Every structure is written in C-alpha cells, then in structure tokens.
Amino acid sequence: MEPVELLHMSVFSQSFSPCGRFLAAGNSYGEIGLFSLAAALSPDATAANQKPVLTFTAHKGPVFSLLSNDCVLLSAGNGEISAWSWTELTKKNVKPLWTKRPNYKSGLEIPEINSMVLNPQDNSLVVGAGDNNVHVLDLEHGVFKTVLQGHTDYVHCVCVREREAELLSGSEDGAVRMWDSRTGQCVHCIEVYKYESCARPQYGKWISCVTTDSDWMLCGGGPSLSLWHLRSLSPTSMFPLSGCQRQAAFHQDKILAVGEGAFVSHCLLGGEVKAQIPCTPSSLNTLQLNSNSSEHRVLTVGGSSSHVDVFTNLSYRAFSLSF
Amino acid sequence: MGAVTDDEVIRKRLLIDGDGAGDDRRINLLLKSFTKWCNSPGTPEEGFTQYQRMLGTLAQCEFSMGKTLMVYDMNLREMENYEKIYSNIEQNIMSAHEKITECKKEIQRAKRIRKNRQEYDALAKVIQQHPDRHETLKQLEALDKELQQLSHIKENMDAKLELRKKQFHVLLTTIQELQQTLENDEKSDNDDPSQESPMENSE
C-alpha cells in the first residue's frame, strides 16, 4: 500500500472472530484486514505480528459496519451486505458466502449502510440504511422480512434491547426511535435535541451512537452524550465531553466513549468523566471489547488513521496494529 | 570397559583425594609402620614409642572419620530444612493465588454494587425534580373542595332561578287571565250597555 493511501485511511468498523483470536477491521477503501490477536499478544511477538495476516477488498465503498456471529463475518458496504465464513477467512480464502441488498425504493442512488446489529431472539439482522429506513433480514431464510419506516433522514446506528424485544435506531434527524421487533411499529420516539440539558445546537441534532443495556440507554452525537432511563424515557445524566461521540459502550460499572478527540473517555454513570486515555488516531470511530475469548480480553479502537490501538489494560495503550 | 571404569575410579579418587589426601596417606603409613613394628628387631623402648606413635595415628584417623560422619549428618539435616522451607513457600504461593482470585471476585462484586448505586442515584436525581407527592395531593384536595363549594353555590342559584321563574310565570298567567276577563267583560259591555256602570264599579 502506498504511504499516501495509508496516511488517508480511516478505520470505520471492527469485529472479533467467534473464537476471539482474530480481529477484522474495515477501512475507508473497502478493504477488510484480518489481524491475528493471538500472535500479536504472545510474549514473543514481533513488529510483523502487528500487520494483518490477510487484507482483501470486500466492497466498492467504505466498510462502515462489521459484525460477527458464530461462524460468519457480515460486512456492509455500498448498500450491500456480504457474508464471509470465518473458517474460510482463516484459510485465506476470500470468497463471500452471499451478498444481499435490501429493497431500496429509489433506484438512482444507492444508499450506504451505516450500521448493523444482530437480534439473537429471532436470528435476524437489523440494518440501518441511508434510505431513512431500518431493514430487518431474516438470517434463516435470507429474506428481508420487515422495513421500519419513520425516520426522516438517514439512520446512523441501531441496537437491540433484548429484554423487551425492541430495536432502537438513531438517525440524522435527531430522533431515537424504538420499534417493537415483532410487529414493526414505532413504540416511542425521543427527540433528544429538544431536551435543554442535552442539546448542543452548535453541533446539530444528529444522533450518531445509540447503545443500550435494556434498562438504560446511551445516546450522543450532536447533542452531548447522555444516559437515559428507558422506562421513564427521561434523561438522567449528561456527560461533559467536548466533541461528538461516535460510539459508546457499557463496561462493568463504567461507560467507555469514543469520538472526536484522540482519546477514549471513561465515565461513571453519574455523569463525571473519570479518565481520558490517549490513543494514536486523531479522532476515533469505533470501539470494541473482545468478550469471545478469556485470554485475549482487549479493547481495540480505530479511527482516522491506519492504526488500530489495542488496550490490554484499560488504563493505557499497549500497542497498535496497522494496515 | 575396564579402561572406562579405571578412568572413573581415577577421577573419583582424584576428586576425593583432594580432601582425603592426608587420611589415605595416614592409613597407608599406619599399615606400613604396623608391619615394620611387627617385624622390627629394635629395642622394646623403640617398639613402645613406635606403638604409641601408631596409636596416635589411629586416633587421628578415627577423629577425621568421626568428623566426616558428623558433616554428613549435618548435610542431611540441612537438606531436610530446605525441603521444609520449600514446601512452606509453595503453600504460601498457593494461598496467595487463592487470595488473588477472591479479591478479583470481590472487585467484580464491588463494581456491580457501584453500578447499581450510580443507577439509583441517577434515577433519584430525576425523581427529585418532580414535585412532592404530598403537596400535589394537598393541592388536589384543596381544588376538589373549591370545586364542591362552587357547584353547591351553582345549585343554590339554579334553585333560586327556578323559583323566581315559577313565581313570575304564575304572576304573568294571572295578569293574562285578568286581561282576558276584562276584554270579555268589555265585549259583553258593548252588547249590554246597561250593565257597564256596575262592572266599572267592581274594577
């Protein structure tokens, strides 16, 4: 790869293999790089172990979303979803299992797919697409069974609320919508920018990250990152982070958030920012915790750089993998 | 084969000899002096001195043997001591490992508790913003009372209005009847002029 290309590369998405030993990272050139975590974390790792074991072009546009289930890696690119078998990828065989495209109404533009999430209850894939809709693909039959309409601008992020069988989606129009996964009706619509405590009109009203652990929801983007209690639909705490957050996660008793700014923010549920750990990329797009393997429990972050930072201990950056 | 064992023997002898050079030589000397003493034709005094000298050498040999035995005993005991210390340390390591796992579990529990406490705090903050339930209930009660009073007043007014209406109605019907009677009388007066004056007088 040319140095210029490396300089302008951004990592948009990451996913760990089901065994937890490999990390797949998708970048802005449509490539997916497969890194061997087992090799990079072993005591006698060298600089060569921090390079990908396999890089292949998956899509024509940037790979905005990567997802793994028990045996398959799903990647979303320019309006289409491809599935790759993990066992085949570890053998360096880069033929996709299938490629599907949701039914888009408008024929001219191909909307990009910003985010996907698996709904384990009915084995379906929830896809947030650029045509303002959320499409649900049944993985058993391979058919798109529902389209959730309601947003007035493209969908940035989706997540699943397992206990209540609901789907949440955050979009550019500033609304977080909650859909019943069985009937497909929009149950609630929260317009975050209308709440004075969260709104930051200087950044806009778009919501770029939504994550939930069934009782609580974190959402942020234009408005500041805030913690919501879902039963009462009220915002409980605001996190005073400068810049817009692109991904957030609940981890034990803390909240990890990444976004604009070359650091990972650790915050407590009460709203205080406990620590900001510096990283290599100047702004971060994706954050993933490896929960598939007990010996490679790491946090990896990627952003506007060709490096993916690996944290073995959450308090400091251990090393970086690079394309 | 013989050469190997010879070499070994020589090696072993060289190794041990460093320490026992004096002892080995002493024993050989003792044997030689014993045979010489047995076969010596010298005077009984010389024989006696030689005998004493041999006893001395024998005592020396016994002494060094005793020393070596004691050193051997000491080494054995030191080994035992070290074994004991070794197993002690191993046990300590095991218990330290267990303590570490216990503490890790404690940490997980404490983190969960902290998370629950923070969630509780966050919800409590939101709840505090809403007004107190007692106050709202009191306000509701006061409003209820007012409402009751007002409806009471309204009922009274309605009743009064009804009464007045009825009274007016009675009055108006009486007046109308009187008017009717007067008109009828006027008509009957026009037919019968002789009965006008008594009619006018009765009005």
Automatic annotation (TrEMBL), chain A:
InterPro entries xref list: THOC6 (IPR042626), WD40/YVTN_repeat-like_dom_sf (IPR015943), WD40_repeat_CS (IPR019775), WD40_repeat_dom_sf (IPR036322), WD40_rpt (IPR001680)
Superkingdom in the source lineage: Eukaryota
Example of a GO biological process term: mRNA export from nucleus
Swiss-Prot/TrEMBL keywords: Repeat, WD repeat
UniProt repeat feature WD, residue ranges: 148-189
One Gene Ontology cellular component: THO complex
SMART domains xrefs: WD40
UniProt similarity note: Belongs to the WD repeat THOC6 family.
PANTHER family: THO COMPLEX SUBUNIT 6 HOMOLOG
Protein name: THO complex 6
Organism, as annotated: Kryptolebias marmoratus (Mangrove killifish)
Automatic annotation (TrEMBL), chain B:
Pfam families the UniProt entry points to: THOC7
GO biological process: mRNA export from nucleus; mRNA processing
Record flagged with keyword Membrane: no
InterPro entries the record matches: P-loop_NTPase, THOC7/Mft1
Assigned keywords, A-Z: Coiled coil, Nucleus
Coiled-coil segments on the chain, per record: 79-160
GO CC terms, sorted: THO complex part of transcription export complex
Top-level division of the source organism's lineage: Eukaryota
Compartment(s): Nucleus
Gene3D superfamilies tied to this protein: P-loop containing nucleotide triphosphate hydrolases
Stretches for region Disordered: 180-203
Signal peptide feature range: none
The keyword Acetylation appears for this protein: no
Similarity comment: family membership: Belongs to the THOC7 family.
The name this protein goes by in its record: THO complex 7
Species: Kryptolebias marmoratus
